[in-house]
Amino acid sequence: MFKALLLENQDGKTVPTLTQLTESQLPEGEVRVAVSYSSINYKDGLAITGKGKIVRQWPLVPGIDFAGTVLESADARYQAGDKVVLTGWGVGEGHWGGMAEQARVKADWLVPLPTGLDERQAMCIGTAGLTAMLCVLALEEAGITPDSGEVLVTGAAGGVGTTAVALLAALGYRIAALTGRPQEQGEMLTALGASRIVPRSELLEPAKPLEKQLWAGAIDTVGSQVLAKLLAQMNYGGAVAACGLAGGFDLPTSVMPFILRNVRLQGVDSVMCPLARRQQAWARLARDLPVSFFAQAVAEIGLEQVVATAEAITQGQVAGRTLVKL
């Protein structure tokens, strides 16, 4: 028997229960893993509270990412004792996820834990950090260097944002961190490496087709009005890596920034990201993310606290990363 958080659908409502499961109840897959750590992301919060249409099968163990040790494998790429990390692939949505002491998944979904990281550090990074690294790679591939000018990170106090700030700072970029709670979160963001803090209200005004050029690059987790505004403020030849829609999935903008200022808008997805790109990103995270990051902007909880944390994260009350220790 092992401990797990199980979501069930009762009369159309999501009901989370802390329970005991057996190995025979785990879904099919080539690799069974003893989970050391999972984490709670915004998507997990929506799934656990039932506030979003995330769950695609019932019952479900949530948790879109985890790190742990292989217990048994029917795939030659993995042996018992191997350390692995999983993010994405619909785990925690349509396949049982990481908020249990054991998980069984497809071998193709796993990545060997990169040299230089332990399981806790891997979940300090998790889906959020992997997404942040993919965004940094997108800016680099668009030619945005530390000499290009200031880079804006929106939703900077969230999981993607905090990792992006730490990565960009370590790589020598000058960072403006956008947050809705500058007085509460400014000190943390400055400690992570932000050069200055920008109140979110500055980007909530309706955007003109083009505005004063302010940003060489941007990593956007918000979408909607904020993304439209920053697109209008991009420097000539600037690039935006967009990976989130916390503010909405609409985009009230025009083609003007793209055709008059040569601005690039690059979408970034971490869920179905190919293995080779994942390995590239994880290797860069192990190399570039400063050790100090793992002591900052990270909280740790047990399974018993997940439901309350899920409610808080959907209300914007959680900053940084929250790990779930199994």
TrEMBL record:
GO terms for molecular function: acryloyl-CoA reductase (NADPH) activity. Pfam families: ADH_N, ADH_zinc_N. SUPFAM superfamilies: GroES-like (SSF50129), NAD(P)-binding Rossmann-fold domains (SSF51735). It comes from the Bacteria. Residues 13-324 form the Enoyl reductase (ER) domain. Coiled coil: none annotated. InterPro entries: Acrylyl-CoA_reductase_AcuI, ADH-like_C, ADH-like_N, ER, GroES-like_sf, NAD(P)-bd_dom_sf, Zn-ADH-like_protein. SMART domains: PKS_ER. This is Oxidoreductase. It comes from Aeromonas lusitana.
